[in-house]
Amino acid sequence: MTTHVFRIEGMHCGSCALLIDDTLEDLPGVGSTQTSMKKGLSTVELDVAVTTPDEVIGAITALGYAAVVTP
Question: Is 64 exposed, middle or buried (CB count within 10 Å of its CB: 0-12, 13-18, 19+)?
Answer without folding.
Answer: exposed
